[in-house]
Amino acid sequence: MNSLAPLPIAGATSVVFFGTPEVAVPHLQALVANDINVELVVTRPDARRGRGGEISPSPVKIAAQKLGIRVSHEVNDVMTLANETQNLLGVVVAFGELISVEVLSQVPMINVHFSLLPRWRGAAPVERAILTGDSKTGVCIMRVVEKLDEGEIFDRQEVIINASDDLNSLRIKLNEVAVKMLLRIVKIGFDRGIAQTGEVSYAKKIQTADLLIDWQGTSSQILRQVRVGGAFTYVNGRRLKIVRAHLMSKDSQEFKNGQVCELSKSSCLIASGDGALAIEVVQPEGKSEMSVEEWLRGARLDAKTIFG
């Protein structure tokens, strides 16, 4: 069995950065801005991204190129660097790929994970925390080990989830905390970590079914889907994304779930399992985001319309 490479006790003099999406970019930029030598950036290959589906580089690759840092798409490229560089540390932030134990035996690595481990191990911890209605989440800096998100923890901070937080705002809050934690530990080095304890849960990648609105659910449940981003329903046979909405205190018992229960030129309330949800911003199928007022001009709704 391969053992893990030892972490630098007195801090790292050089870093290899592993990351892919936009959420990882501030970490890379902060390392460079604080005079930490980033020798190499490893990111996922260019892929189809965005609505246009054009092949494009990852946000981390774009940031690394602007900073003049060498970029690779191959994890094993770090092995050569490990033989040439002392006190090398791998920093992983939302990389999106497991790292083999053969690499971990040569290069010590830490991961910035956006949850209070062992709750929400896996690919979508921020999304799952919102969907489940967690009142808090946080950031853990842990050792990367062969098994998914099971390494010892070196630092941990809690972050409150406000009712107004959507996925983007919560990620910003988490990143503000995480960047400071990362800079501190890379500079001062690593003492003995703490083993994870408590109930384990897994944050599976968000699927389309997670975002399909069930109007039999509570208004709070539906709003959490909206806050994650991409929540959708159907109206008059057409798919409709609900981009922003808010809860309304309204007795909807006389209405069917998903039925329009209040309608004007500028507002639309939809009955849920326990009340109603007021739509603010939508994205009709094949169109851009728009205010509910703009959408209602051509939506042809009436009091009998049922969503879903």
The CATH class of the largest domain: Alpha Beta
Query: What overall form do the CA principal axes indicate?
Result: elongated
Helix % is: 25-40%
Rounded mean pLDDT score: 95
Question: Regarding quaternary structure, how should these chains be classified?
Answer: single chain
N-end to C-end Cα span: 53 Å
Overall strand count = 17
* CATH homologous superfamily annotation of the largest domain: Formyl transferase, N-terminal domain
Q: Major sheet: order of its strands?
A: 5-2-1-6-7-9-10
Under the CATH scheme, the architecture of the largest domain is 3-Layer(aba) Sandwich
Q: What is the count of DSSP helices, taking H or I runs of 4+ residues? A: 9
Q: Mind telling me the C-alpha Rg?
A: 23 Å
Q: Helix and strand succession?
A: EHEEEHEHEHEEHEEHEHHEEEEEEH
Q: Profile the largest sheet.
A: 7 strands, mixed
CATH topology of the largest domain: Rossmann fold
Question: Which secondary-structure class do the elements indicate?
Answer: alpha/beta
Poorly predicted regions are none
> Which range does the strand content fall in?
25-35%
What count of domains describes the coordinates? 2
